[in-house]
Specification:
- The structure is a single chain.
- This protein is an alpha/beta fold.
- Helices cover about 25% and strands about 30% of the residues.
Length: about 210
């Protein structure tokens, strides 16, 4: 299912194996680079998988033999799986390319989505992603992750937001290489179920944030 939103076409891809999603990203990337297709955002869930970005260290990886897929995005290791909404924007950035500005727009999209559900989240200096601030429940906790790559002026990879996923998957790794902070979900923070189906249309509505400059 796809519907055009402010020059972006979101595609609801359902549950898609990581490799299949990566193949589709690369296909779309070639088409967008060539001008054969407009900006497109894949929105999906993955079966449970760990992916390791270019800065992943050996000690970041799970010690229990869990498979890890090495990918060419920035950042370190993270988990994707059921109950987490993943977005892969394949978007042509304005010239001159400003990757930091694009990351900030992606963060803002996720902050705005959290706010719609009544969760106050924001940025942490020196750390990517979107965080619930430190409070009486514990230190700052990441609710959404960002890892991108830009090739030939067009983005790959993207973001994930934890809706109602099993957070114990993060216990096997050092998520994104950060040892002194936790990982959370909308459901865990708000105290009631917030599903991918709930979050999907809200993310779609905020996608124009990615291309506002």
């Amino acid at each position: 299912m796809s519907v055009t939103t402010s020059g972006l076409t979101p595609v609801r891809a359902g549950v898609l194996d990581y490799q299949a999603a990566w193949d589709e990203q690369r296909r779309l990337h070639e088409a967008v680079v060539a001008g054969e297709q407009g900006d497109t955002v894949l929105l999906l869930e993955h079966p449970s998988v760990y992916t390791a970005g270019k800065r992943t260290e050996p000690w970041d990886r799970p010690m229990d033999g869990t498979p890890v897929i090495d990918v060419d995005r920035g950042g370190k290791i993270t988990w994707h799986g059921p109950g987490q909404l993943v977005g892969y924007p394949i978007v042509k950035l304005p010239d001159p390319v400003d990757v930091v500005a694009y990351v900030r727009r992606t963060e803002q999209l996720l902050i705005d989505v959290c706010a719609e559900f009544g969760l106050t989240a924001g940025r942490v200096e020196g750390r990517s992603g979107v965080w619930v601030p430190e409070d009486d429940r514990g230190p700052a906790r990441k609710v959404a992750a960002i890892g991108i790559r830009v090739a030939r002026g067009v983005t790959l990879h993207g973001f994930s937001i934890n809706c109602d996923c099993d957070l114990t998957y993060y216990d096997r790794i050092v998520p994104c290489g950060i040892r002194d902070a936790g990982t959370t979900s909308l459901t865990a923070e708000l105290g009631h179920p917030v599903t991918v189906a709930d979050v999907l249309p809200v993310v779609e509505r905020h996608l124009p944030t990615l291309v506002q400059v």
